[in-house]
Structure formats: structure tokens, C-alpha cells
Amino acid sequence: CLTTLIIMLVGDTYTLINYVSFINYLCYGVTIIGLIVLRWKKPKIFRPIKVNLLIPITYLAFWAFLLIFSLYSEPVVCGVGLIIILTGVPVFFLGVYWRNKPKCVNRLIESVTCWGQKLCFVVYPQGEAAEEE
Questions:
Q1: Total domain count, the chain
Q2: In the chain, which end has fewer C-beta atoms inside a 10 angstrom radius, N or C?
Q3: Is residue 127 in some structural domain?
Q4: How far apart (Å, rounded) are the C-alpha atoms in residues 40 and 60?
């Protein structure tokens, strides 16, 4: 979110749309690849919706074309999009992967989470109080 605000202040909206489009293409394709890998490695697990594998494979063909075309036509925009995605790696390691955090780091993460929930009006139910409402 902070990176997006900086880009909005520095660049124009068209460039921001290109960044987001590339990121969306990349995330959708990786999701479909994950679907195919799970269908191949774990074919017996329950799936509420099961489609013929021809559909995701066809989608991946079009996805590869869009991604390669984007990389060819605007490599700088795609590079910045990749950098935007990679800014999440330190956040993952600090927030999820690092298990034995000091109490001050846990308090900071909890306060940032609470602030974000209040900002976006998103609160997960906590115990019996949420069930009574």
C-alpha cells in the first residue's frame, strides 16, 4: 500500500495500471500452475469444483503469451512490478516465518494489524462476543 502511494505521487495513473496488470497476470498464472500441480500430485483430495485440465492449460498458454508480451514491450514496468511483489518477502519473514520474535515485535505487529483492521473495517470474530452479535 505504501509503495502504491509513493508511485501515485511520483508517476502517472497509466504506469500504475501497467504495474498492477503485470502483477495480476503473474499472480493468476502462478495460481493456475498451483492448481495443476495439486491435481497432478494429490489427485484424491476433495475439490468442490473440478474442471477438465484442458481449461487451465489453455489459460496458461494465453497467460504465457500475455506475460512474455508484457516483458518484451515494457521490461522496466515489469521489473518494477517484480520489485513491488518482492517487497512482501521481508514482511513474510518478519511476520510469519520468524517464530520466536521478541515481545516488542509481537506488540508492534499486533498494533499494526489492529490499525489496519480498523482502517479497512475488517475484524475477525474473537470468541463468544462475536457470536452474540
A1: 1
A2: C
A3: no
A4: 16
Q: Which domain holds residue 59?
A: 1-120
Residue 35 contacts by C-beta under 8 Å, 6 or more apart in sequence?
A: 56
Alpha-carbon span 100 to 102, nearest angstrom: 7
Give the torsion through C-alpha atoms of 82, 83, 84, 85, to 10 deg: 50
- On whether residue 131 sits in a domain, the answer given is no
Residues 6+ positions from 25 with CB-CB distance below 8 Å:
63, 66, 67, 70
* 3-state secondary structure at position 115: helix
Q: Sign (positive/negative) of CA torsion 15, 21, 24, 26?
A: negative
Residue 129 lies inside a defined structural domain of this protein: no
- Going by C-alpha positions, the residue among 62, 89, 70 that lies closest to residue 17 is 70
pLDDT tens-place string over residues 28-66:
899 999 989 998 899 888 888 888 889 999 999 998 988
Residue 110 covered by a domain = yes
Which residue type is seen at 120? C
Element (H, E) at 71: helix 54-73
